[in-house]
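Researcher: Here's a chain I'd like modeled. Treat it as a single chain, no partners, no ligands.
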Amino acid sequence: MQVEYGGIKATGGKLFVIISLLGTIGGGLWGGFELFKRYEDMEAKISSYVAPDLSGTQLQEKLKSVGTDISALKDLVQDAQETARDIRTDIKGEIGEQADQISAIDKRSRADGLETRQAMRSAESEIRDLITQTSKRWDDKLTKVDTQIENLEKKIDKKITHALENPLAAMSKSNSVSKKFPWRVQK
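Model: Modeled as a single isolated chain. Structure tokens:
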């Protein structure tokens, strides 16, 4: 790209340098004008400034006002301290009451726990006794049944033996009998 102005030809890099130079000059001029404007504004403010009256009467009035404010603050602090003491005392009392209630609940809980453990032990003992008694009864009944079964077996064995030895039955203690009746007769 090529630009010609007033008989001067500018191409590529030269054009870029010229545009940058014009931008820098324009920015510098604008900054200078802004600085000058601020200087004029500051000069106007300084010339219109009026110094405050720091005479003794105004200062004393302000100190009295500050002193009154300080004494009011002291009163507020004392009231706050008293309130804090009252609250602390109330809280200590409530904590003591809560500790007493917790202690009473703990004592009742321990007593209830002991009572529960004793009741459980007693129930376990009763259950063991019931199991033992039931087991003994079953053992006794089973012994009676076993005895009755043995007695019946002996009676049946005697009857079978008697029937086998009966000559009218045409059976005897021979090999033919043991083949017909595979069980063994006990005497």
